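Reviewers of the previous submission asked for a worked example of the structure-prediction workflow described in the proposal, so we include one complete record here. The input consisted solely of the amino acid sequence. No template or homolog information was supplied to the procedure at any stage.
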Amino acid sequence: MAQPFLKIVVVFCASWLVSTAYAAPQLVAHRGGTADAPENTLLALQSALENGADMLWITVQISSDGVPVLYRPADASTLTDGRGPLNSLSAAQLAGLNAGYAFSQSDASGNKIFPYRLQPLRIPTLKEALHVIPKSVPILLDMKQLPAAPLVASVAKVLDEEKAWQRVRIYSTEKDVLTLLADYREAKVFESRDATRQRLSGVALSGSCDAPPAAGAWVGMELERTVTVVEKFTLGEGRSEVKARWWTPAAVSCFKTNPDVKIVVFGVDTPAAYQAAEKLGVDHVMSDSPIKMKAIRLSVKP
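From that input alone, the workflow returned the following structure tokens.
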């Protein structure tokens, strides 16, 4: 009688081990892979998918006439051959700029070259990106621009027209953006960076986990980040620069208290950073280089 019982236990244990097998974190291409190709361009998005990205992070602002486009800096001169605040230029003017103008690489001799100055790339609109990105690929949409109201209204209009709300989850460091998005029933958003930072600080400084994120929340923060610690005295204050390793086993455990919470760790671009994130059991890692990350993931694959 003992042998059949033992067999059942062994089968059950083997089944449990398979069902709880560790899943490697999915790869998020930061601005389509800003180290591999001109950021936020259709070329970058295509390259990221070809090199194993599971999700695409894109940054959206609006033109002076309210057209959402993929571009990160406040001024056109930072990355293109144009100049002026992005929201001072019309969609037609932005379409005439070279989004790859400032992108540089090193040639075989180590010299800095600008390969896209003679092969210009357009700044894509959000609508164009939604048409090019396969519907099966989730999109993390970063909204940075102020004022928030016209940005939110213009992006929402495109997502309505393209029936794309379910494909997109929105991130923003701007409180006004998140507040306005609360009026859109279909909007899926990250929790605020302030809330995530507060939770991580609580775990790091006091070991407390008093208010973990709600079930189904998405949170994002760098794996490491230099922060300033301020100690208040009766007369004055003391300041220390600290390289904070936000995500620790205790922090991940706290954030995962409730079911289906997703952790996206930013700034994962080295083998050591990827291995640390994988060991922590986070859900997604965001990288500037899907090409480099493809090799890293293969090298650490069990």
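Residues 127 and 158 are 7 Å apart (CA to CA). We consider this example representative of the routine output the project will generate in years two and three.
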